[in-house]
Amino acid sequence: MSYTINQQQIDSVLTLPAAERYGHFIRRVADWQELWGLKTDGGWVALCSDDGSKCLPFWPHPEYAKLFAASEWGDAAPERMELSRFIDWLSQISQDGYRIAVFPTPAGKGVVVAPLELRSHLTAETEQYE
Q1: Weakest-pLDDT range from 49-58, 84-93, 96-105
Q2: pLDDT band at 50 (very low <50, low <70, confident <90, very high)
Q3: Domain spanning 7-129: which CATH class is it, in words?
Q4: Contact in structure between 25 and 36 (CB atoms under 8 Å)
Q5: Does the structure show a pLDDT above 70 at 60?
């Protein structure tokens, strides 16, 4: 079960610069051991970054994913993933040529990162909790 957030918190986090939202994502995901992507009947939602890279977007809370879906992917719904499963999946994502769009906003601002780099950041943060 995800942590509780209110509209003021959502608005505050969405106005953070992309690098600060990335840090927020890393801390929240490591703390709660879950993250959220978007799925349709066809599978996980994929985006293209400004450089043309295929990206899978993820957020630290389903409310952020819902906001993005409303602006870009009306037929998509937030899907929870346990952190341990996600970390295991990152190698396959990398082999498949995808990158990760971390915490894109409805305005399209996010951080695009290589899957193995994200795994490194999440693992390092998670180790601080042990």
Answers
A1: 49-58
A2: confident
A3: alpha beta
A4: no
A5: yes
**26 Cβ neighbours under 8 A, 6+ residues apart:** 121, 122, 125
Residues 6+ apart with CB under 8 A from 114: 94, 99, 100
What is the distance, to the nearest Å, from the Cα of residue 32 to the centroid of all Cα atoms in its chain? 13
Whose tokens are 């601080």? That residue is 128
Question: CA-to-CA distance for 91 and 23, rounded, in angstroms?
Answer: 21
Instruction: Please state the domain extents for the chain.
Output: 7-129
Judged against a pLDDT cut of 80, whether residue 130 lies above it is answered with no
Categorize the per-residue pLDDT at 106 as very low, low, confident or very high, splitting at 50, 70 and 90: confident
Q: Which residue has the tokens 């409805």?
A: 106
Amino acid letter, residue 39: K
**Which of 32, 21, 24, 23 lies closest to 82 in space, CA to CA?**
32
Dist. CA 37–CA 56, nearest whole Å: 8
Residue 115: Cβ within 10 Å count: 22
Tokens of 40: 């349709």
* Residue 3 or residue 82, greater confidence: 82
